[in-house]
Inverse folding.
C-alpha cells in the first residue's frame, strides 16, 4: 500500500442515538423508541416524532423503560443494524 492509498481511507462517522427501551421480548434484541422534536415548516409549531429501532443487546441486560445509547454497526440480521454502547 502506498502513501496515496492510505490517504484515501476516510474515517466513517457512525450515527448515535439515545432512546427508551419499548420491548425486550426478543433474544439479544431490544426495541428502542427514539423521540425527536421537529418544527413544522409552515406553521412553526413543534411536534414530537418517534421511531423504533431494533438494537442488538448481547447480554440481554436492558429491560423495558431503561434509557440506552446505541450506534450504527454492520448488519446483524434483517432489521438489526444497531448495537448498544452503554
Amino acid at each position: 500500500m502506498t502513501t496515496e492509498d492510505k490517504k484515501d481511507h476516510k474515517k466513517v462517522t457512525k450515527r448515535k442515538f439515545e432512546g427508551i427501551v419499548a420491548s425486550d421480548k426478543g433474544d439479544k434484541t431490544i426495541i428502542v423508541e427514539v423521540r425527536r422534536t421537529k418544527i413544522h415548516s409552515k406553521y412553526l409549531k413543534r411536534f414530537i416524532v418517534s421511531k423504533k429501532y431494533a438494537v442488538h443487546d448481547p447480554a440481554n441486560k436492558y429491560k423495558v423503560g431503561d434509557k440506552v445509547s446505541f450506534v450504527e454497526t454492520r448488519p446483524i440480521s434483517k432489521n438489526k443494524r444497531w448495537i448498544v454502547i452503554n
Observations:
- The two ends are 36 Å apart (CA to CA).
- The chain has one domain: 8-84.
- The chain has a mean pLDDT of 92.
- The helical segments are 3-8.
